[in-house]
Amino acid sequence: MREEDAERHGDSLPEQSELAVSSPVSVSRELPPRLCGYLNKLSGKGPLKGFKSRWFVFEPLHCHLFYFKGSSDAIPLGVIDIADSSFTYDLEAEEGQFEIHSGGRDYTLK
Q: For residue 103, what is the domain's CATH number?
């Protein structure tokens, strides 16, 4: 029914603002908290090895750990497949330092 027809028959169509008020739709799905933060990652080769601060983001759907240069970067420097990884924590190493072994590579983080 068009608006002119509705007015002729005595019916009035609600205005758009009335629709919003009369039929509230509440969609309050809370997303789970995002697991992310800075870790120091060992990088470099030979005598140039050193720890660099990297922003890590865990993506639970595919079980990947992405790492970026900083928290505002959009393109990751790399990704670690956590689903098929093993972790080691050497008690004699520096406090908080651990290794992730994934896909034939070793990542040292602290």
A: 2.30.29.30
